[in-house]
Amino acid sequence: MSYSRFFRALMSMLACLAVFAALGSGANASNSAGSTGTKAGSPAKIETKGRKGPVVLKVADYSVNFGGRFRLRGKSGRLTRGHIRIQSSNGNGWQTIRKVKTDGSGHFSVKVAARTRAALRAVAGDGHRSKIRHVTVIGQIRLDRPERYVKLGRSLRVSGVVLPRGSRVVRLRVRGQGTVSTRSRASGRFVLSFRPRENGDFSYRVQAGKSSRSTGDFSLFRRFSALRPGHASYYGPGLYGNGVACGGTLTPTTRGVANKYLPCGTRVTLQYGGRTVVARVIDRGPYVAGRDWDLTEQTKKDLGFGGVGVVWTNK
To answer: For residue 300, what are the contacts with CB-CB under 8 A and spacing of at least 6?
Structure first.
């Protein structure tokens, strides 16, 4: 091969290598540009920019009485001031109930009303969410002013409202006597009636069943007296200064009753007309057939009792 032919062949090879090198450089540049474009358009990279940690929600009290407040605190995961949304769900989707400001460290603290059992979460502005926290509302029973005395043959009426309002089973339990039940209305109102079978002093309380919005609950114990009729008379004039069977001296201001069987000191509730008096057994009597009680002069005056008649008592 002549020198000129060898030189031309070498130049052709160099030219081909230059073309291949140019094509490879263009492809690398294109790949680099495409990769850069993907990073720039990636939502994940935008969302995590500046984030220092997860969104955290902490609940101080996981169960609160209806009308109270759940105490919440946590952090947004960013070391800047901003906002966090507190969302609630009771099975019908998430709803924002509060929007809270965060401090320079991303921390927040807030109280939300306890109206219904729900799931809570905190949502940051970039869409990051905390773990879900489940909270429970403790139901309440608000009783109307109760009846204190019920005559045998009539019924004790107990009414009130359950909170949160709604229809649920409500029971009245009278200790040693039994239970009656009803359902509250949609407004939460209820009325219960209980007819005592015997005279005496009884305690009771109301129980409301649980609902989808809250737990069940019991009211505080209340008391009532079931009264029976009894024939009574009074004594005193001509006997003042004399001793009484249970000890002491009878005077015009002595409040008490005489009974043949009850132990001395027994508290007796007496009702006559619209008046009610509580007196203790201080003496024995009466010894007239058909009569159950002898009232002292003071007890007679307190009741507005005429002299001989029927009084209603718990004993």
So the answer is: 234, 236, 307
Hey, where are the domains in the chain? 56-138, 146-220, 229-313
Residues 6+ apart with CB under 8 A from 266: 259, 280, 281, 315
Q: Which two tokens stand for residue 301?
A: 């005056």
CATH of region 229-313: 2.40.40.10
Residues 177-217 have pLDDT tens digits of 999 999 999 999 999 999 999 999 999 999 999 999 999 99
pLDDT digits (tens, 9 = 90+) for 145-170: 999 999 999 999 999 999 999 999 99
C-alpha 300/C-alpha 282 separation (Å) is 15
If one looks up domain 56-138 in CATH, what number appears?
A: 2.60.40.10
Residue 23 host element (H or E): helix 3-41
Fold: same for 56-138 and 229-313: no
Q: Which pair of structure tokens corresponds to residue 11? A: 């130049």
Rounded CA Rg of the chain: 43
What SS3 state is found at 120? strand
| pTM listed for this prediction | 0.73
Rounded CA gap, 76 and 102, in Å?
A: 7
